[in-house]
Amino acid sequence: MTTFADLGLRPELLRAVQDAEYDTPTPIQAQAIPVALRGTDLLGCAQTGTGKTAGFLLPILQRLAQGKRGRLRALVLTPTRELAAQIGESARTYGKYLPVRSTVVFGGVGLRPQEERLHQGVDLLIATPGRLLDHLERGNLEFSALEVLVLDEADRMLDMGFLPDVRRILRTLPTERQTLLFSATMPQEIEILAYQTLKTPVVIDVGRRATPVSTVRQVIYPVEPDQKRDLLCHLLKHGNMKHVLVFTRTKVRAERLARHLAQIGRRVEALHGDKSQGARTQALDGFRNGRVEVLVATDIAARGLDVEGISHVVNFDVPNIPEDYIHRIGRTARAEATGDAISLVSSEELDCVRAIEHLIGITIPRRLVVGFEPGAETVRRFTQQPAVSRAARVASGAIRHFGPRNRGNRHRAWA
Hints:
- This protein has 415 residues and is an alpha/beta fold.
- It folds into two domains: 4-206, 3-Layer(aba) Sandwich (Rossmann fold); 216-413, 3-Layer(aba) Sandwich (Rossmann fold).
- It is 39% helix and 16% strand.
- It is built from 16 helices and 15 strands.
- The protein has helices at 11-19, 27-38, 52-64, 81-94, 111-120, 129-137, 154-159, 163-170, 188-197, 228-238, 251-263, 277-289, 322-329, 350-360, 376-383, 390-396; strands spanning 42-46, 74-77, 102-105, 124-127, 148-151, 178-183, 202-206, 216-222, 244-247, 268-271, 294-297, 312-315, 339-345, 367-369, 411-413.
- The strands form three sheets. The chain has a seven-stranded parallel beta sheet with strand order 3-4-2-5-6-1-7, with helices on both faces. A six-stranded parallel beta sheet has the order 8-13-12-9-11-10, with helices on both faces.
- Helix 2 (27-38) runs parallel beside helix 3, helix 3 (52-64) crosses helix 4 and helix 6 (129-137) packs across helix 8 (163-170).
């Protein structure tokens, strides 16, 4: 069995990894770290929750520990504030025994403290594209010493419309550099970006693309739209759900659902893009430390949210894009743990479910809850043989997607 010591890492990094209680590298780490240490470009495609952050941070920190310090030599671009903050925390964790200075810049907070840290000199910068451009326009950054670029969650940056900003940033960087690109899926636009950006990269594809980890138990509860809220409350009360992440389609629905759950006594917070950065950080910290038992979020939390012990992910609204389902349920069953993914599905969302099932190659089990059985029309739609829907053809690649019981056993299988 491969160990971190087998990968050629410095003793200081091995000590930090041991402190973090990591025993053996994940497959993406075991394959990516030696490649990155050699200075070779890399294209990594792996399921969410597989540990790719350490896969690129550990070799970067090893590189930065050698040579001149205080100049920006490594840049990590990532789509969201939350993911940037988590990568920054990981950099501090892994690099705590090395004289490497890192900082994080993202929007939603003041520029001045970030400017001061940048002017003091950093070796490693983790940034979101928009805020990085803000600092570039103000003359706060200089890339002449840059040696390594990481494009993390590249497909999510595409989904969020950041690809033009990424291309603007690429034009300011030295052409002689090492580039590591990581993406959970590989749509055509990202394949083009990789072709244009990477030089004879090593390709690492860990597991089948766009599939959930095998330790996630998936289930669908067919339900009428106006019963979703009450069914969720019932499940929270009777389902032994202690650390729950709930996804809604919109910010408004997240706020409304969080308010209702608070009214019935749940310790709940909402997380979405209209929240200030301080409120978002507070909500995440509360969820991590257990003060918050239910976090209701939009897809802002579908990627990069690394919280230990999430027992259940609930799709209160089924995502329109099948790949987003993979990323959502990947927030549970991380690091080889087990977890549950529950989807509350109305008949109007059935096409989205079939597209998801087409993508992941399985039929997700259906179950009913007594007292919340759907009406006859919903039952008919769930049991009829489906035609190949447009959503399913999108998932298969035929169409390109450019935008969105008794009391002893209250849950019984869908017949």
